[in-house]
Amino acid sequence: MTALVDVTGRLRKMPAEAGDPVSYTIRVGDTLIPLNEMVGYPLQFDFDGVIRCINCDRKTNKSFSQGYCYPCFRKLAACDSCIMSPEKCHYHEGTCREPEWGETHCMIEHVVYLANSSGLKVGITRGSQVPTRWIDQGAVDAIPMVRVTTRQLAGFVEVACKKYVADRTNWRAMLKGDVPDLDLVEERRRMLELVADDLSELRAAHGENSIRLSMKTGWL
Q1: Backbone angles phi, psi at 100, to 5 degrees
Q2: Domain count for the chain
Q3: Is residue 38 part of a domain?
Q4: Domain span at 203
Q5: pTM of structure
Q6: Are 44 and 28 in contact (CB under 8 A)?
């Protein structure tokens, strides 16, 4: 392994690529560092005392919503409350902070999935983020359940599923490796039965083709 010295820059979301094993990279400024080959070696991170917004590069005393300054936090659609609660999307009301951003990130196909990270959980992601989202969450297995036409619809389906299953990972159990064996195909069948009435109501309101079952049995 080549020694790395004085790599400076802001940390960004760590890219991951599906494989056996998963390939991880850490982004420091403009530098990409492959992490798999560094397993077993010491790493040191030093904070230089300066916080800058990941959007506008403004110096800020405190970051919000994983890296933004307060003005960007207040104006960007990516920082709106509906990002954490997609069922609260207000794009259709004409009040989206950034309508063009909403069109490319929210008004597109999303996947509602079941994953096994610290046990069964439900989640949503953009169709283009499969299986990256599952890798980011530390899932040992995952399976798509339905594909929907918008992020808000994904949120409605997730809310229906949350009556029966968690939507968060117990990261302590995940790190300990306390992950049960689950038959996700069977869990998907069971969940679809439990939320069948909810899906019918959503289709009636948003169109028959707005929610489509996904019968794939693997990550891809």
Answers
A1: -65, -40
A2: 1
A3: no
A4: 107-212
A5: 0.86
A6: no
Non-local (6+) Cβ contacts of 188 within 8 A are 114, 143, 145
To which residue do tokens 């949350």 refer? 162
Q: pLDDT of 5-58, one tens digit each?
A: 578 888 888 888 888 888 999 888 888 888 898 888 888 888 889 999 999 999
Q: What's the DSSP call for residue 64?
A: B
Q: Which helix (H) or strand (E) holds 199?
A: helix 196-206
Q: Is residue 182 part of a domain?
A: yes
In a domain, residue 1? The reply is: no
Q: pLDDT tens, 140-168?
A: 889 999 999 999 999 999 999 999 998 88
Q: Check residue 132 and report its DSSP letter.
A: H
5, part of any domain: no
Task: State phi, psi for 33 to the nearest 5 degrees.
Answer: -115, 115
Give me the phi and psi of 13, to 5 degrees please: -55, 135
Tokens of 216: 């794939």
User: How far is residue 65's CA from residue 42's CA, in Å, rounded to a whole number?
Assistant: 29
Q: Which of 116, 114, 95 is nearest to 188 (CA)?
A: 114
